[in-house]
Design a protein that fits this description.
Elements: H1 2-19, E1 31-39, E2 49-53, E3 57-60, E4 66-72, E5 75-82, E6 86-87, E7 89-95, E8 100-109, H2 130-139, E9 143-146, H3 147-152, E10 168-174, E11 179-185, E12 192-196, E13 199-200, E14 214-220, E15 235-236, E16 239-240, E17 242-248
Parallel strand pairs: 1-8, 12-17
Antiparallel strand pairs: 1-4, 2-3, 2-5, 5-7, 6-8, 9-14, 10-11, 12-13, 14-17, 15-16
């Protein structure tokens, strides 16, 4: 009898840890923002990128359009949802310490998504629409960044994106009203030409000051690498220049 009691005691010691309830998964300390991203027809948008700033927290929506961003400090947050083919959406509110907020963000479709890349009859990519950016990224020689690449750099100002691009530095230069950041090529080409949504800068067309307003950009350190559709912009005062093309949320997806 004692032998059986000893055997039962051993079996109980082995079985109890298996049957004991597992501890709850520990959630990161701090506040949480969760919600859903939909399109204008109330359909969930999967694979949308969602950021919470400040601090640059990021999540991506699942197949049902849901996302969760945890471990946030209390304070004012701007939540932005973006995906190629849609205009971005933003939501701003105060998050209490260790609090939780549920939000719904609605993305407006902007034509079809960029599944197909169009080229002209002469083999050139579009110069004035985002599908041209996709086309050149597939076969070009420049540096190509979409909004996820730009977000990963954690910059506030557009000029600071150039700090991590080979062949460039960022200088601080005084103006009449402020001190501004200016990207400068470090190669033999000392000038840098800008295009915004495929058009030269002017009084009405300016490079976005903040990197959050740039959805994509392409940078060509050498004028020889600039694609044919932009070659005429590499000349300035008889010298050849590097080229940077910025694409904003106002850029058309296709011609």
């Amino acid at each position: 009898m004692k032998r059986w009691q000893g055997t039962l005691t051993i079996l109980a010691a082995l079985i109890c840890p298996i049957l004991a309830p597992a501890p709850y998964a520990q959630q990161p300390p701090g506040g949480t923002i969760s919600g859903i991203v939909r399109d204008s027809a109330a359909r969930p948008v999967a694979e949308a990128d969602v950021t919470a700033n400040p601090d640059g927290h990021r999540a991506r929506t699942d197949s049902s359009g849901r996302f969760t961003i945890a471990g946030l400090d209390g304070g004012n947050y701007t939540v932005r949802a973006r995906k190629f083919g849609y205009s971005p959406a933003e939501w701003t509110a105060d998050l209490a310490k260790n609090g939780h907020l549920e939000v719904t963000l609605t993305l407006t479709p902007r034509l079809a998504t960029l599944d197909t890349v169009f080229t002209r009859a002469d083999g050139q990519c579009s110069a004035l629409s985002l599908d041209g950016f996709m086309c050149r990224r597939q076969r070009g020689k420049g540096v190509y960044l979409d909004y996820t690449d730009i977000d990963d750099k954690g910059t506030t100002y557009t000029a600071d994106i150039f700090r991590d691009i080979d062949g460039f530095r960022v200088d601080m230069r005084p103006t009449r009203s402020d001190i501004v950041r200016v990207p400068v090529p470090m190669t033999g080409w000392r000038c840098l030409t800008y295009l915004v949504d495929g058009r030269p800068t002017s009084g009405a067309v300016r490079v976005p000051l903040f990197s959050g307003d740039v959805v994509a950009m392409e940078v060509y350190k050498s004028p020889d690498d600039v694609p044919q559709e932009y070659q005429r912009y590499t000349w300035s005062g008889g010298s050849r220049c590097s080229l940077a093309v910025f694409w904003t949320r106002l850029a058309p997806l296709r011609p």
